[in-house]
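Quick question about two entries, pasted in order.
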Amino acid sequence: MLEWLELSGLGPHLARFRRWLDKMPNREFSQLGVWGKFGRLMLVLAVLGLISAPAIWLLAK
């Protein structure tokens, strides 16, 4: 599937990002500071936007 999406070159970058996430402390959302909460919310919004953008484009077409 990665070849179909032409994301095959992102493998090393995704692995590095995963290793960085594994080193981060595992804290609950309520234990985060303001910037941590903001960062997590922006990450969720970005992923939802990337997932829903093709669907919106297909429906609007």
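Here is the second entry:
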Amino acid sequence: MEKTKKENLINVIMVVSSNIFAILVALFSGFILPKELSIPDYAYYRVYLLYISYAGFFHFGIVNGIYLKYGNMDLDQIPRKVFRAYSYFMLLSQAAVVAALSLILFAGRAAMELDKVIAFAFVIINIPLINIKWFYSSINQFTKRFVIDSYVTYLQNILNLVMVFIVILLKWYDFQWILVIITICNLICMVITMGQNKMILWGDKEKLSDIEIPELIKNGFFLMLSEFVGIIILGIDSMFVDNLFSQTEFAMYSFAVSVISVIFTAISAVSNLVYPYLVRVEEEKYAEYYGLMSDVLAIVSMFSMLAFYAAEFIIFRWLGKFIPSLSIVAILFGTVAFRAIITLVCGNYFKVLKLIKEYTWNNIFAIVISFLLNGAAYLLFHDYRYIAGASLLSFVIWYLVTERIFIRHMQIPLTGCLRRYGYILAGLLVFYLLADADPIPGFFLYFAAIFGISLLCFWRQLRKLLGIVRGKAA
């Protein structure tokens, strides 16, 4: 028992520390590169980042299918011959993806600017590097080998840091050089995760026809789609701005998205830590944990919005050319609370309860709503700030509809949910009232307000959480 507790503590420490480091590196590169790059080079760099965020679609859900089927197994329990066959399939499928996308890009190159073709070419090159790395990384995670997985996270962020220094020292301010270095970094990390799982990379394997690939894709594809809904919603508005507004406006909008994505990156990483433990929890405690986790995430999300004032301070004093993006940053910060609960709580509960069909239709609805709202915002206002507002509204609707599924399925009392909704609403009202305040007084005023609201709404939950942490919960 003591050994298990020690291992769990080490896992938590490694995941949290590696992702704190990831946030620091993302903040550093997220503010240094825009400072040094020209607006056009930054815009094309952001085009790459926008479309590479969809790389996960091209493993077709097999990673998620494997995660669902084997997520409660440790390393010594997984069938190695079967996993070697999965590895072989991943390598073949990613090679096919590169070939197909390359043909599409070649056919459509005449309709695009050369720099945009180059950005898309790097997207195609990096898709297999990211997906193969994620395949092996997910195996590390569900077998609870978080420590070795965190080593790769540390390394990837160190390489990202080195990339920024190389760009600055050598004055490689052309976006193409940045994408070359990113590709090298992704290649290194892919090779390392493969090495960490060499026991399922080489050796005898099952035949592809015997390992139920179609079934895994069927079970995993819509779960994968569900996990990407947040990216899709933010991606839809970015695509609207990319294709319907000027290059400068796209640079401003994508810079705002990059600020928000730092927080989303941390949320997604912690989500990977939750599932292997949640799937081992007694079923009768699911409803209780759902409410507690949602409340805690709401509180954490509201406090994380203090980062807006830090970003505002830096932009005013360091990145004057991106001051027009501040209004977009403020609007999109409102999505943090909803995205946090959906990703960390709802996403993991859909996996644990195997409610894939419900999640699928719910998220298809969310994508449709996002597209319609963004389209309406463009047609009515022709202003990219309203597209950001449409994105925020999409997240609100997505969260409410998604949570309704769990309220019905686990018969959760509505009282606790209404308290959480009121808390988030109050926090957002305070945030937007202070969004135009000077950064330093705004920071302290918002902190005082959200601290008081948190105590008022969740005093009992905070005491219960403290009891759980101390091991004294009933």
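Reply: The first helix runs from residue 2 to 36. The chain has 18 helices and no strands. Hope that helps.
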